[in-house]
UniProtKB/TrEMBL annotation:
It is an enzyme of class 6 (ligase). Binds 1 Mg(2+) ion per subunit. Residues 271-388 form the ATP-citrate synthase/succinyl-CoA ligase C-terminal domain. Mg(2+) binds at residues 208, 222. Its EC number is 6.2.1.5. It catalyses: succinate + ATP + CoA = succinyl-CoA + ADP + phosphate; GTP + succinate + CoA = succinyl-CoA + GDP + phosphate. The keyword 4Fe-4S does not apply. It comes from the Bacteria. InterPro entries: ATP-grasp_succ-CoA_synth-type (IPR013650), ATP_grasp_subdomain_1 (IPR013815), Succ-CoA_synthase_bsu_CS (IPR017866), SUCC_ACL_C (IPR005811), Succ_CoA_ligase-like_bsu (IPR005809), Succinyl-CoA_synth-like (IPR016102). The gene is sucC. Heterotetramer of two alpha and two beta subunits. ATP binds at residues 50, 57-59, 106, 116. One of its GO terms (biological process) is succinyl-CoA metabolic process. This is Succinate--CoA ligase [ADP-forming] subunit beta.
Amino acid sequence: MNIHEYQGKSILNSFGVAVQRGLVADTPEEAVEAAKKINETTGSDWFVIKAQIHAGGRGKGGGVKIAKNLDQVKEISSQILGMQLITPQTSAEGKLVSKVLIAEDVYYPGDSEPSEIYMSILLDRATGKVTIMYSTEGGMDIEAVAEKTPELIYKEVINPGLGIQGYQCRKIAFNLGLSGKAFKEMVKFVESLYNAYVGCDASLFEINPVLKTSDDRIIAVDAKVTLDDNALFRHKDYAAMRDLSEEDPTEVEAGEAGLNYVQLDGNVGCMVNGAGLAMATMDIIKLSGGEPANFLDVGGTADAKRVEKAFRIILKDEKVKAILVNIFGGIVRCDRVAQGIVDAYKNIGDINVPIIVRLQGTNAKEGKALIDESGLKVHSAIVLQDAADRVKEVMA
């Protein structure tokens, strides 16, 4: 589950990670009041106005700006709120900005020059260990850094059974070229950041940049936090942070119906039970010349109601020109799925795309008979390749 920057910073702060202070606002008036409260703490009349959407690259799209007084806070907030912000990580339509973060200015003058650091924590599934990736080239696209100057990217691998060790925190601070107060601050920052990653059951932390201020403080200026959906039952307060307006409405609807659905860009809708079978189905559609329009796993307990809901969700995509249903009857019985397909076809009514159904496993013969005797325009198949060939035929 993705969350907003201000929410991610609140989680980090709760674990003792130093963050850039800020307050969220829904209106220009609230933005001004937030700036006044920040001014009481910092004494600075400069503020950073940040659009809150689930996408990176906000500054490139005009979603991050500096305000040098309260009048500018109101003016800039008015410009950003309500805009369709387009970044390298959004669609061509962009995302609607409904909140802004009013943050303190942390690039103030001092005894040394501020410097930006990139840092992320994620699970390396190949090794089964947590990896901290970091670089002195913060504030830039890490992909570009990896391509042009890979020697500037460091990795620290952590055994999750042992947790992060003191020498690893010191190694990170040393590789970043820090010394004195900044070195000590970074050691504390890294340890707290790792504890936050584990403590909130995150799947990704990306802090770009981590800032060494002019007075050698180490703080998180940005915070991209992705939480593991499977662990939200342990964190009811984090689950409440979910912003449905930032998610695809069809995917939200599917989730509420207990369906695992991901929208893709193809023209062949898929309905499958089991993630592995779904991936294989998408592959064979691709090999047969089609393009998968979605990933849809109806689960191992698919019944008529769930099958009908799955059809309705697939048909919301106007690009879909055919639907391939591929069911292996293990826990679920094929005849029940077949009956669900027949009922769904009748209940939905005018279905203008061909449907190819492949049933294998428990009661597959009975299921095929139900499909064949229904009188509906549904094509049945036994072998997966036959089903894919049928898709190719009806798409021709």
